[in-house]
Structures are given as C-alpha cells and as structure tokens.
Design brief:
Chain A: Keywords: ATP-binding, Cytoplasm, Glutamine amidotransferase, Hydrolase, Ligase, Nucleotide-binding, Purine biosynthesis. The complex is a heterodimer of chains A (about 220) and B (about 80). Chain A has five helices and eleven strands, in the order E-H-E-E-H-E-H-E-E-E-E-H-E-E-E-H. Chain A has a nine-stranded mixed sheet, sandwiched between helices. In chain A, strands 5-8 form a two-stranded antiparallel ribbon. Chain B has a single domain, classed as Mth169, Chain: A, CATH 3.30.1280. Chain B is about 30% helix and about 30% strand. Chain B is built from two helices and three strands, in the order βαβαβ. The radius of gyration of chain B is 16 Å and the shape is elongated. The chains are: A alpha/beta (about 220), B alpha+beta (about 80). Chains A and B meet through loops of A and helix 1 of B.
C-alpha cells in the first residue's frame, strides 16, 4: 500500500502542488489538506509548503500558526508525527514553537532566488535518513526572510544535540547563524528547511534530483514502522 | 474612546537590516544626525471607553502571542487618550 502524506494549503501557499508532486514521485500518495479544517484525513506525515501564507502579514508564518489545521499538526507532531516545513512552512513551524528560533529578513535585504549548495549535517531525522552523512546537495533557495536567528543558548543546544540538519555551503545567502539552512526538533520528526527540495526532483525542471531524498526518506521510515 | 498602543521592536541582539538600510540612506539625503537606526512596528487598538484591567491583560496576552514573536522581539503596551 502507498503511504499518505498530507500537503497543507494555506491562503497564499505557492508550492503545495510541487510538494504534492514530490510526494507522488517518491512513491507516496499526496493528500491535499486545507488550512481551515482540522482534519488530517488519516495521513501519516505532513508537508507545510512554501509561499506567503496569509500574505506574510505581521510576520511570516505568524497568522498561519493559528489556522485550525495547525492545532491538529502541533498536537500530532508532539507525539512523533512526521512534519516537514519548507521555506514558509519552516517559518510556520518556528512561529508554532515546534522548532526553536525565527526566520528574519535576509541580511542583504534582497529576495534571493538561486540554486544553493547545502551540506547535510544530520541523517538521523525522519526526513533526512536517505542521505549520506556530509552529503553535498544542490537545491533551489528562494526567499526574502530566510535568515535563521536565535539566542546563543539555543544555538549551542542545536549544535550540541546535532539538530542542524543542513548548512549553506560555499555562499552565505542570508546571514543565518552558523549558516543554518535547516533544523530538526529533538526527536527528529519535525524538520524545517529554508531551501526547496520539492523543486529538485527531476532533471528537466530542477538543478538536480537531490531534493527527492527528503521525500523518499520519510516513506522508508514509514515502511519500517 | 481610548487607544491602546502596542510597540514591537526587534531585540537589540537581533540583526535589523531594514534599520541599517534606513541608517545608510539618511546621510545620502544630508541627514547626518543618526548614529544608528532600528525599525519596529506600532499597533493602534481602539476600544470603547477606558480600557479595563481585564482588557489590558488580554492585550498583553495578544501582544505576547500574536503581535510579537518573543524569540526575536520585545513589546511595550501603553494607553493613549
């Protein structure tokens, strides 16, 4: 049987279709979830896609956090349910306090869109177990507020617990602390990532197919359960 | 009718590239007074009559949960008549 992975659509989500397509390419069944409902439709994992939820008014992800679907996701995530937040999804996870820190305006103030090299730092999470430790990947990065910020204590905790899952390589795009591109929660079921793996699943449209591994990782993990 | 004001600022240790951009634009216009600039947000909330202590407590809660992100920001609540 095929595993069901939900993809949430908020008002202003842009990359929900690409995320759903990535789930299907990886061998899963993509299930559309809607922000205004708290029904997770028996999915076994969830992707919060990129975009500009609720116009990114107030702060990125700040209003999406209070959507009914997020209540269900936060409760489930605290019990080990796999959640991947990409770009705006990462911002929503931080605003929901499922992940520590916050994403702020890029240090150079520019909206950036480029193919970005990353180093995978942690392959023990539900979403990264298909990578080799230290693997270098190339996936698109496109955001205006991608600078990961947190206090020193949080940064030390993330580093000492190995919760930085990916770091920017060769180029600092946004002034993130310690070049952090993605982090996980303590359990490794919740992962937030600024760059976009769902745009790098086919050689025709992406700079690589490296992004697919995030989606195959979760499916392998679900099979093993 | 009173106005409750909530002012939200980035914590001092958080980089404020918007404020820096403003600070570097000022001298280009001949304004040389600024040593540094930090940019924040101001919310003006209208309520009927004098705000009650219960309302102020509610605003405080809203400021902490929605209007600011305590990870990167601080806020001040005050009443304007």
């Amino acid at each position: 049987m095929s595993f069901r992975v939900g993809v949430v659509t908020f008002p202003g989500s842009l990359d929900d279709r690409d995320a759903a397509r990535a789930v299907e390419m990886a061998g899963g069944t993509a299930v559309p979830l809607f922000h205004a409902s708290d029904d997770l439709k028996e999915v076994q994992a969830v992707v919060l896609p990129g975009g500009f939820s609720y116009g990114d008014y107030l702060r990125c992800g700040a209003i999406a956090r209070f959507a009914p679907i997020m209540n269900s996701i936060v409760t489930a995530a605290n019990h080990g349910f796999p959640v991947l937040g990409i770009c705006n999804g990462f911002q929503v996870l931080c605003e929901s306090h499922l992940l520590p820190g916050a994403l702020t305006r890029n240090s150079n103030l520019h909206f950036l869109c480029r193919d970005q090299k990353l180093k995978i730092e942690n392959t023990n999470t539900i979403w990264t177990n298909g990578f080799k430790p230290g693997q270098e990947i190339l996936i698109p990065l496109k955001n205006g507020e991608g600078s990961f910020q947190c206090d020193d204590e949080t940064l030390n905790m993330l580093e000492s617990q190995g919760r930085v899952i990916a770091r920017y390589l060769d180029f600092d795009p946004n002034g993130s602390r310690n070049l952090i591109a993605g982090i996980s929660n303590e359990r490794g079921n919740v992962v937030g990532l600024m760059p976009h793996p769902e745009h790098a699943i086919e050689s025709l449209t992406g700079p690589s197919t490296d992004g697919l591994t995030f989606f195959t990782s979760v499916l392998h993990q679900l099979v093993g359960r | 009718m009173a106005k409750i004001i909530v002012e939200v600022m980035l914590k001092p240790e958080i980089l404020d590239p918007q404020g820096q951009a403003v600070a570097s634009a000022l001298p280009r216009l001949g304004f040389t007074f600024a040593k540094s600039v930090r940019q924040g947000k101001r919310f003006e909330i209208e309520v009927d009559g004098e705000p009650t202590p219960a309302q102020m407590a509610e605003v405080e809660k809203a400021a902490e949960t929605l209007l600011s992100n305590p990870v990167i920001e601080t806020y001040v609540v005050k009443v304007e008549k």
